[in-house]
Design goal:
Blueprint lengths: L11 H4 L3 E8 L10 E5 L2 E9 L5 E8 L7 E4 L8 E2 L10 E3 L3 E2 L2 E7 L7 E9 L29 E8 L2 E10 L9 E4 L7 H6 L1 E3 L19 E3 L1 E7 L4 E6 L7 E4 L11 E6 L7 E10 L3 E8 L10 E3 L5 E8 L9 E6 H13 L65 E4 L1
Length: 428
């Protein structure tokens, strides 16, 4: 196997497939009472703050609570009859300092309900959504619709678009909802470490579910209509295999599938599949095969479809539809089908912290499901890595590095599609 080609640090901004999605604007005097407009209707009194940022694709307020403000806070765009969402800190975010919901367009309204005085909270920063090439989508023309492939139809629901805030601005990536060995329904969510790795980033995250067609090559749902999960905890993260495991503050919508995974090794030419959100657009699917690996990364080439910015963190699937890695980056594009991408190995990420959360087992009550769980390593070197002294026979291999996997159950106790694969379990 040849080693993956990695760029020097100076080139990694082009290597990683994270998509910059917003810039940051500060408000010079965020606490002035004069910023608030008093509204009086038959329903009562409210106070509204309006912010305009010309050319923004969307706006998102950063809320600072100056006093113990308990009145409901609503966020919406130019059309007050449109998508109205309540702003509140997620479970892990600080009440005094948090990012609110997103409003489409270049006008943002923050409305506080009730009260005889202007609210004592402030909007001190605003994320300004960057346009997509003058309004046109950047995602390239070779992409395939996963809804056209029945084998992947349920699996695709466990892949989602991520938007989050960093100190330099907002970005979009892709991630996947994973099951644990005990099938607890805990919303574990895997993405790339270069996408996010800090708790502040995790607090700001918005997960967009079901951004895919309902029929093959059908209509795409409006982004503002998608169900979301906001906020998360960083449970484990590591740069070596470029992973971050989150625990979401809010559950995914009903019908979402918790994906299976495996630490098994691949061989050159083994088939792979990737489901992702290129350019933070609707979901696509790519097919290819393994061309090489090193200790921490798989290297793949695509035969159909490809990836681009926004695809970072997307799950790499083996032929059993189990997650075996997440996208770090690469030079593959629709216009460069001979170039490769690299994915952090799930087996390495397992050893670097994921096993502490997905590997906790309880007695299964499902008779139709077999789960292989980690047990004692069978060599004498006190590690969990596969090496020359390990017994690699089908019946004798004990080490977690090439055997641990999750074979998952559906809501009624049977396996997901054909009672014989590593698909996923439905969060119905």
């Amino acid at each position: 196997m040849r080693s993956p080609r990695r760029p020097p640090a100076s080139r990694r901004s082009n290597w990683a497939k994270r998509r910059p999605s917003s810039a940051r604007t500060s408000i010079s005097d965020p606490v002035s009472d004069t910023l608030w407009q008093k509204l009086e209707t038959d329903d009562g009194v409210s106070w509204r703050l309006t912010i305009v940022s010309d050319g923004a694709r969307f706006l998102r307020p950063h809320v600072t609570r100056i006093a113990d403000e308990r009145r409901p806070v609503l966020v919406y765009g130019e059309d007050a009859r449109g998508d109205v969402r309540e702003a509140f800190p997620t479970r892990t975010a600080r009440r005094s300092d948090f990012w609110g919901p997103i409003a489409a367009g270049d006008m943002l309204h923050v409305e506080v309900l009730g009260g005889a005085r202007p609210p004592r909270l402030a909007v001190d920063r605003v994320a300004h959504g960057l346009p997509k090439d003058g309004g046109a989508a950047l995602e390239l023309g070779c992409y395939l619709d996963p809804t056209c492939y029945a084998f992947w139809d349920e699996i695709k629901s466990g892949v989602a678009e991520i938007y989050y805030e960093s100190w330099w601005g907002g970005s979009s990536c892709t991630g996947s909802l994973l099951d644990d060995l005990s099938h607890t329904g805990t919303p574990w969510f895997l993405t790339a470490n270069h996408c996010m790795s800090t708790q502040d980033e995790a607090d700001s995250v918005i997960i967009y579910w079901n951004f895919h067609t309902s029929v093959c090559n059908g209509a795409v749902p409006p982004h503002g209509s998608l169900p979301t999960s906001s906020g998360s905890d960083v449970m484990a993260e590591n740069e070596t295999s470029d992973f971050t495991l989150l625990k979401l503050d809010e559950n995914p919508p009903g019908g979402t599938w918790f994906l299976g995974w495996s630490t098994d090794a691949l061989a050159v030419n083994d088939p792979i599949t990737v489901i992702h959100h290129p350019d933070a657009a609707w979901k696509r699917i790519s097919f290819g095969h393994l061309v090489g690996s090193d200790a921490n990364f798989w290297e793949v080439v695509y035969t159909e479809s490809s990836t681009e910015g926004g695809s970072s963190g997307s799950p790499l699937f083996n032929e059993n539809r189990q997650v075996i890695g997440q996208l770090w980056g690469g030079y593959a594009l629709c216009t460069r089908m001979n170039d490769t991408d690299e994915f952090g190995k799930f087996g390495e990420s397992w050893n670097r912290g994921i096993s502490d959360f997905l590997g906790v087992t309880t007695t299964t009550t499902t008779s139709t499901t077999t789960t292989t769980v980690p047990d004692a390593d069978d060599d004498a070197d006190d590690d969990v890595d596969d090496d020359a002294s390990d017994d690699d026979s089908a019946s004798g291999d004990d080490d977690t590095a090439d055997e641990t996997k999750a074979v998952l159950t559906g809501p009624s106790g049977e396996n997901d599609l054909d009672n014989n694969d590593g698909g996923g379990f439905c969060g119905c």
